[in-house]
Amino acid sequence: MASGRKPTIVMIGADTILTYLFGRFAEQSGYQMTASKKNISLDTIQAAEPEVILFLSTDVLAKNQAIVAKLVNIDIPILVCTSATEETRARELGADYCLLHPLTYTDFQAALGMVITASGVNPV
Predict the structure, then answer these.
(1) What is residue 40's three-state secondary structure?
(2) Considering the domain boundaries, does residue 1 fall inside one?
């Protein structure tokens, strides 16, 4: 990460409300959010130098398995927004951490804390 730049979260999925919510959560946590509503390439993800990638649903994660398979090799943690009933499926699809509905800022911060602890990232 370049000095003076906020750490980045790349968000994948098309949901206006969740995009706004997670954008606010990220801002309050000292992160910047980069959103991709459509197909995203590995090059685009790497260019953003994200600390974490956030998929807006288990279905979006499932549709992007080609990217997920490549992310394993570059060690970027994957978060997915999902329900408790879909958590096992999300993990099978490659999620490192799950943000469970109902979504709260506290849970978002806790998930980022786990990412930071697991990867040694220090965003501030």
Answers:
(1) coil
(2) no
Strands 78-82 and 8-12: unpaired
Domain of residue 29 covers 8-119
Q: Which tokens go with 109?
A: 């911060």
pTM exceeds cut of 0.85: yes
In a domain, 124, yes or no: no
Instruction: List % helix, strand, coil for the chain (3-state, nearest 5).
Output: 50, 20, 30
- pLDDT by residue for the chain (124 residues), tens only, comes to 455 789 999 999 999 999 999 999 999 999 999 998 777 889 999 999 999 999 999 999 999 999 999 888 888 999 999 999 999 999 999 999 999 999 999 999 999 998 877 766 554 4
Total domain count, the chain: 1
